[in-house]
Amino acid sequence: MISLFLKDLFNRVNQGRWPYLIVIGHILAGSLLVYTQPRSNLAFLVLMTSFMSLYFFTTSVRFKLIAGTMLALVIIPIVGVRNIFYLEVIFQISVFAALALGLNIVVGFAGLLDLGYVAFYAVGAYLWAFFGSQQFYVLHFAPGTQPSDLPFLLPGDAFYMFLLVGVVIAGLTGILLGLPVLRLRGDYLAIVTLGFGEVIRVLANNLDKPLNFTNGPQGITPIQRPSMPDPVVEWFNSVFRGVVGHDVTPADMYNLMFYIFALIVIIVIIFVTRRLDDSKLGRAWTAVREDETAAIAQGIPLVKMKLAAFAVGASFAGVMGVLLAASRTFISPESFSFMQSIGVLTMVILGGAGSIPGVILGAATVTILNLQVLQGFSLYLNELRQSDAVMPIINFAWKDLSPQLDPAKYQRMLFGLILVLMMIFRPAGLIPATRRKREIDAEETN
Amino acid sequence: MALLEMNNITKVFGGLKAISDVTFSLEKGRIVSIIGPNGAGKTTFFNTLTGIYKPDGGTITFNGKSLVGLRPDQIAARGIARTFQNIRLFPDMSVIENILVGMHIHLKQSPLQTLFRLPGFKKEEADAEKKAVRLMRYVGLKRVENELAKNLPYGAQRRLEIARALAADPLLLLLDEPAAGMNPQETEDIIRLFRNIKADMGITILLIEHDMRVVMNISEDICVMDYGEKIAEGTPQEIRANTRVIEAYLGRGAVAGQHEEKMR
Questions:
Q1: Does the beta carbon of B72 lie under 8 angstroms from any beta carbon of chain A?
Q2: What's this model's pTM, rounded to 2 decimal places?
Q3: CA distance B205 to A399
Q4: Domain segments of chain A: what residues?
Q5: CATH 1.10.10 fits A83-141+149-445, yes or no
Q6: Residues of B in Cβ contact (< 8 Å) with A275
Q7: Minimal Cα–Cα distance from A91 to chain B, Å?
Q8: What is the mean pLDDT of each run of 10 residues along chain B (264 residues)?
């Protein structure tokens, strides 16, 4: 009932000039709310959802482009440097959106369930971590025993080149994983990929001997960033000092820079994904997903197609790994646990496997739930514990509530709940994938 | 020389000889049926021919080249297209996309052309789409190009599967019970479609069918299998009169019974 009413309302509003006004209003309201209340999660949500109204309302392509660019390149940077936590959330959304888009190729398009996807992310991250730090000169030292005055192997600006190297190396790793699993289907494939993910993590954990490649559980740090010329910071300050309200430091500027990089990577990924999807390759992937036997009978080489899916998906994760290593300047095996793989899979399933906007929405939703909603709930419970408030009816004093109950640590339950609920109520995801509609002139008879 | 020659093909599952020592040859441009009781090995025969199963013995020569040891997709690329006993479309793809997948082996677009939408890519896609629409209409589907395959009615799904097979421009078309589940009118239409396919495109057709109206109506030759062996081969008239065939279908007593009836 309610959904029908909403649909009707949406269709009524989505006509003529209204969508433009609503979208602009939404963006302005969001910006204003965040600007006046830089600490409010709710205000931030309003701003973030303006991306959704921009996507759903029917407006001209040019308007969407302009409004989207304004949002991404002007409003979010301003809001972000005013409250660096927001920028962090948006950066994480971008990183996970890229990962989810990569996994979407493997799971959504080709239908190969990959439970160890984060391995490719690790490969990209460790690639730059090794070459962009002093690790090369630490090879013969046990972790923690290296002298402190070691030089760096490569200059920080080699980062840009390694974005490409990351794509290639992660893609090759994808093929490497693909080779042994070619003959497997369904459950068996999932189990092998799960094993592969663990192998990579365990390697990262233990490759500190005999030669110290990864520095073991301690992780690698410091990892270099590309250089940030002073004029850029000065230029930003001269333009935005007024709206931001204070001068930004180079550290803030780095956060902004990595956000922009992540944005560029995502745009490239969307571009690549869309074009591959609407081609022989994308159709072959979908055919393999739908019915392997029938796909082979059409002359589709299963092996090649699966390898291609693994390679493309892995390369997206690889480039994000390089970006992550540089932006964090620190990498440890902990960041690449099985839970991360499940997290990315949750995003794909929540948003809609095979659907680009869906997967991005999934990534944003899960990240915001994790970083803001659960954390916010934790903070709220803590406040209650410190107050004299009493739960009504059962007379339970909040301060007696066990400190063990910390919603921020309930990430796994959140993933589980999302997966269960989606499978039952909306297996195709929040924004289900659609097939391209073709205009065909009907004049031909026969 | 025959388009397809299979010599002494054997396929064993565990202790069961699903096909034993079958020799079969098919001339170009003919419509031939394989019939036989359930479990006679007809579908196994198809699966062995298309490479889903590897034969345990014997040779298969298609269009002058051996098919033994090739993967199913390589065999398909040699010019053998097929439909399945239980329709196997790509349910969540549109009708046009289903047919486009059938053209896979003929599309030459490279990843670079695909990513940058170079002219070669655009032309190939546009041509492919035109051809797909033509095939869709040829098999008798109208204005369903953007429908998902799973939403089509049963008869239309059968037709779409045939269009998808034709999209590969095959030399040989294998049809596994194409008339199963169809009413008499639909059956008649589909027989006409097969005749047209042979006449218009010169495609050789090999089909498995249980519906004797279809078999007797359309086949130029019939091959009969029972317990994994070929027990008879010939024109519909010859097969109708063949005692081994009647025995296979109706049991050993049947032939004797027929005699008794004649005696009375």
A1: yes
A2: 0.91
A3: 81
A4: 1-82, 83-141+149-445
A5: no
A6: 114-115, 117
A7: 27
A8: 92 92 94 92 94 94 94 95 95 96 95 92 95 95 93 95 96 94 91 94 94 91 93 93 86 58 53
